[in-house]
Amino acid sequence: MKLVDHFQYGLNSPICLTWELTYACNLACVHCLSSSGRRDPRELTTAEAKGVIDELQRMQVFYINIGGGEPTVRPDFWELLDYSIDHNVGVKFSTNGIKLDKKRSAQLARTDYVDVQISLDGATADVNDHVRGPGSYDTAIRALENLAEAGFGQPKISVVMTRQNVDQLDEFKSIADKYNAQLRITRLRPSGRGADVWDELHPLPSQQRQMYDWLVAKGDSVLTGDSFFHLSAFGEALPGLNLCGAGRVVCLIDPVGDVYACPFAIHDNFLAGNLRSPGGFQEIWENSELFTELRQPQTGGACASCMHYDSCQGGCMAAKFFTGLPLDGPDPECVRGFGEQALAARDGVEIPKSDVDHSRSAPRNSRTPKGPVMLTLGTRPDKSCDPSPLANPAALGPASARA
Amino acid sequence: MAADVDAGPADSAGPAFDPLLPYRCSPSVALRPEPFGALVYHFGTRKLSFLKTPQLVVVVRDLDQYPDVHASIEAAGVSESQRPAYLSALAGLAANGTIEERS
């Protein structure tokens, strides 16, 4: 059996675990996958969070992806970071850069076993700030400058690909090179507030091809969180794990301890349990009904007869679910166009919506009226953070994983 | 094949792999048991890799108990026909730092 086949049946512990530490965020990005903004009063306490880290150490989860919300606004963030590293659970955290001043940057440069990922969704301020809010481009660049000045080794710049920034791929790469950072690009999902803007922001079919060609030509040193495996149907498989890892090698712990199958699936249907319950996280990972079900062999459903099924595996579960498509059918961005057909045929289907929403009612970062308004976005506020789905899991290069 | 082990290209610097010498699993490495074998994590390079057979896990884990690599392979009960594949996998593991020569 090939390794990837084993992965389908689940691992003893996750390879890639995302932990959203808080729903609080200083930004209000329009596509926030976790609809963050306000802190949830039920958030795990410092002691509880340390207990989770102890458990992850026992389960030999060697590193975690911390996100939010904006994780660095938690007052105990730095304490938890140190605690995790001291317990052999390495940390990569996603941030919009708000707290990465010179002092923190120097502190991070002195810390081993930590990775920093700065979110940036436009290579220019106008493209970025229309999605992430005014000033967010400057905040991200300032953080990159501080990290570079402090000598922090290779932060990552994480970009959610949108219709507006696909043409900027080369510019993103230049920015990464300028700050000695590694570029990471991931797929926009219709999750959280992303559902509200997906129709406007998700790349057009021609742009899907453009991204694929770019990755094939220049993607060697670019991380993807393995999030573009649906594009493998264009031809050669992209490097990495071409498989939905939800509940098998990946999962999400949310700020209140709820465990979901993946960071893009914050919805009751994908809730496996809460780690405050007896048995904690390990019990949920090993025995929850949902994860057991996700580890059953998949049939492929309507996609089973497609010649590309082996390469795309039917695409992303969350992308289907939050666009109202059946989970055993094509991905909405199926490169053969079956997704678009399915979307057009949705007639009257109720599109599921998560009831987990911490958006602030009044957008703090509402767009300024001046300047060209590229997007006609709704009234929802916006926020940051794009923890990764298959975020830096084990991209199965021959020997090793590319985070 | 049975010993289709992800060991990767033996392209990194360092001394050549010599199965006649004593080796050990690197102290910077942790092995996590998995249904297929084990997941390897190297705390120094932060790379994940995989040992794709339970027998290879035994070979790697117990290297330090034998005078050379061959003895560890034999002790794990690897069949003679599989030995070249295991040696090749171990050479890859030496190149990526999972195992190292011991003095």
UniProtKB/TrEMBL annotation, chain A:
Pfam families associated with the record: Radical_SAM, SPASM
Keywords: 4Fe-4S, Iron, Iron-sulfur, Lyase, Metal-binding, S-adenosyl-L-methionine
Residues in Radical SAM core domain copies: 11-221
Catalytic activity of the protein: [mycofactocin precursor peptide]-C-terminal glycyl-L-valyl-L-tyrosine + S-adenosyl-L-methionine = [mycofactocin precursor peptide]-C-terminal glycyl-N-{[2-(4-hydroxyphenyl)ethenyl]-3-methylbutanamide} + 5'-deoxyadenosine + L-methionine + CO2; [mycofactocin precursor peptide]-C-terminal glycyl-N-{[2-(4-hydroxyphenyl)ethenyl]-3-methylbutanamide} + AH2 + S-adenosyl-L-methionine = [mycofactocin precursor peptide]-C-terminal glycyl-N-{5-[(4-hydroxyphenyl)methyl]-4,4-dimethyl-2-oxopyrrolidin-3-yl}acetamide + 5'-deoxyadenosine + L-methionine + A + H(+)
Ranges annotated as biased composition (Basic and acidic residues): 349-360
Cofactor: [4Fe-4S] cluster
GO MF assignments: 4 iron, 4 sulfur cluster binding; catalytic activity; metal ion binding
Signal sequence, start to end: none
CDD domains with a match to the protein in the record: Radical_SAM, SPASM_MftC-like
PROSITE patterns xref list: RADICAL_SAM
EC number: 1.3.98.7, 4.1.99.26
Region described as Disordered: spans on this chain: 349-403
Name of protein: Mycofactocin maturase MftC
